[in-house]
Structure formats: C-alpha cells, structure tokens
C-alpha cells in the first residue's frame, strides 16, 4: 500500500505552513516493474489534481516507511524503487509513504522569454 501526499504547483508556491496536500492511496503489488509503477503514479496524480497531460520528470518523488525508514529517500529510477521494495518487504504489512511535489518553473526562464518578446514588440 502506498500512501500518497500530493502538492500541486499552486500549493508549492505557498509557504510551507500554508501548503495543503491532496492525500490518497495506491494499491500495487510489490513485484511489478518500475515503468508500471511510474505509470500508475502519474495516473493517480492526474486523477487527484485533475490534470490532463503530465511528465514524470516534472515531479519530485520522496518516500519513507513508517516506523522503519524515517528519512525521506528519492524515488526517481528503477534502483530507487528496488531499494524501496526491499525495505517494504521487511514489514509484516508493507506500507510506504510517498511525497509528490511538482517542480515549480524557475522565474528566470519566464522573465527572459518575456524580455525577448517585449524587444520584438518594440521593433
């Protein structure tokens, strides 16, 4: 069982104390392939945050196991997932907390584009 804590882009722009998460769960077998896990996580994000098209690389995934693995670990690739499964299987009833945060776009990139657009409009 995966307990998911999702933060949308608008929530990530708020201070930590003001952020509100969307909490849900995902039931998966621990023996499925990493690509399938990624697809299921993306589907759950789309459903929970009511999004259309998303990319796995636009999110930060961190996990921990209650009462066993207190520090959050990265979940971005197959080796991360195998490590997670190895720890989860040590529990009588495997459960994993997964924190999912959207990566907020850098303001510098947007401002450069705006300045280029404004130069074009001046001509």
Structure report:
There is one protein chain. The protein is of the alpha+beta class and 123 residues long. It has four helices and five strands. The protein has helices spanning 9-12, 34-49, 78-88, 107-122, and strands spanning 2-7, 22-26, 59-65, 69-74, 96-102. Strands 2-1-5-3-4 form a five-stranded mixed sheet.
Helix and strand layout, with pairings?
Elements lengths: L1 E6 L1 H4 L9 E5 L7 H16 L9 E7 L3 E6 L3 H11 L7 E7 L4 H16 L1
List keywords for this structure.
alpha+beta
Short structural summary:
The protein has 123 residues and is α+β, with helices and mostly antiparallel strands. Helix content is 38%, strand content 25%. It is built from four helices and five strands.
Overall 3D form: globular
Order of helices and strands: EHEHEEHEH
End-to-end gap: 58 Å
Helix content class = 25-40%
Widest β-sheet, arrangement of strands? 2-1-5-3-4
Structural class: alpha+beta
Sequence stretches where pLDDT stays below 50 over 5 or more residues: 107-123
Total strands: the figure is: 5
Number of helices: 4
Biggest sheet architecture: 5 strands, mixed
Calculate Rg over CA atoms.
18 Å
Mean pLDDT: 82
